[in-house]
Amino acid sequence: MTLPEAQQQIFDFLLSIVREWPPEDVLHEFEELFFHSTETTGSGSVSALYTILFANNPQEFHNTLKRSCYILVNNWEVNRQYEAICTFVALFENPLLQRYTLSPTLKRLREWLYSFSQSEDYRELRLFASRFSEEAREQPWSARYASYLLVPQYTNVENPIEQREAARALSRRLKDKFKFELAMYTAHSQAPVSRHRKLRNPTKLGDSVLRLIKAIVARRGEFSHRNLAHLFLEQVKELHYRDFKKSLLEYLVYSVHQADLVKALKQHLGHKLDALYPEHDESEVDRSLQLRTCNRLIDHLMTEDKRTPSQLFTLMLSQGSSLSLAIVLLKLILICRSAHPYLEARIADLIRYYEQFPQEQCAWVINFLEVFQVTFAIYAENVEYNLISPETSTPEQWTLETLEACRVFSRMVRGYDLEGDRDSNDVTES
After folding, report:
1. Residue-wise over 368-396: b if at least 16 C-beta within 10 A, else e?
2. What residues does 385 pair with on adjacent strands?
3. In 3-state terms, what secondary structure has residue 70?
4. Are strands 407-412 and 383-388 parallel, antiparallel or unpaired?
5. 407 by DSSP, 3-state: which?
């Protein structure tokens, strides 16, 4: 039996039992196979495991185990068998993995299992399971943003398809949950009866989230961000890349009101754009070049090494410009939907960087993440928000007092989604 044949035999066996057996029986069978290497119901599964062990390739074992995990987890998640997921993930914390044994084969198996339990892949598995665990409340502050932390799992083509599908489905569900709870909070918090009951605010922004929503939604009609994005795309259709970059900079800083922030954005992004892909300066802009350009600007605004915050990110947040940064990022996505997963992956990078610090030291970053979530829930998802003013003046004439008196209405809509159709032919680039 070859190594690929052995791996496939294990995958087929696990897939067959997870579809037909109760979770507790599947858990027992998995533990017998991988933790004790004893004969299981699956004919040949132990011999397949021995083939992998005798190949003496830790990475191949790791890959086999990882895909095996997500075959089970993905199926349980689809069938809402969440308790099984939590029990399964806890198996890898068994002290048995560090217990001494005289058997060389069992010793190798336990060492490789323990190595997996200490890996980033197992950390991602625990992140997935934490959303279904009663202990989720004890997770670090970063666990609140699991919908973003899951993105690198499903955008990484090196991950097993089962892991990618599970991560994508859970991320989508968490975003939908936030979106729904935000709409419900917005609706009920403005009702008179809300004064007599405590409403669940899905954000960490307190009552100020209503003012934030009003400030974002107030930009509508011909001056809405979505309409300005459409207008920009129409105007740059025939431009060469050099002129496209100049127009892109003006588009991004338009509607930023702080003069010092406009100056900083023009300086940082202008230098970045001037030096970006000069070999294409005289070429027309196709979708691939547009995507790469937007991704490079996202890097400059967020993290250029995918590990630490960029200078511009730190500068904008230190000046209290969380909303301005969120809007600039939104404007990039409104002209290039394909850049949305890339943006969220960079959000995940920043969360991973800051999670090493206590929550109280990350207040400004958490504030940005909350503003970002709200902004994209309003503009980038399938909920439509509108303002109703008690006055007859047009939105362009509204004062702060008028805006404060407005009521926000939301409704579910179909058709527009910045994340795009999963089966679309949008180009991708990292």
Report:
1. bbbbbbbbbbbbbbebebebebeeeeebe
2. 410
3. helix
4. antiparallel
5. strand
Residues of the chain with pLDDT below 70 are: 39-43, 134-138, 190-198, 220-222, 380-382, 389-406, 409, 412-430
Q: What is the torsional sign of CA 246, 248, 254, 260? A: negative
Write out pLDDT tens, residues 159-180: 999 999 999 999 999 999 999 8
State pLDDT tens for residues 142-160: 999 999 999 999 999 999 9
DSSP string, 16-40: HHHHHS-HHHHHHHHHHHHTT----
Longest CA–CA separation in the chain, Å? 84
pTM of the model: 0.83
Write the CA distances from 72 to 188, 279, 322, 365, integer angstroms.
Answer: 40, 48, 40, 35
Instruction: Give φ, ψ of 19 to 5 degrees.
Output: -80, -20
Residue 81 phi/psi, 5° resolution?
A: -95, 65
CA distance 245 to 248: 5
Tokens 């997870």 sit on residue = 18
- Using CA atoms, how far residue 372 sits from 89, 204, 246, 264, 430, in Å, is 31, 12, 26, 20, 21
Yes or no: say if 268 and 325 are a contact pair by the CB < 8 Å rule.
Answer: no
**Tokens 């897939």, residue located:** 15
Retrieve residue 8's tokens.
Answer: 């496939």
**Cα 404 to chain centroid, rounded:** 32
Exposed/middle/buried for residue 74 (C-beta within 10 Å: 0-12, 13-18, 19+): buried
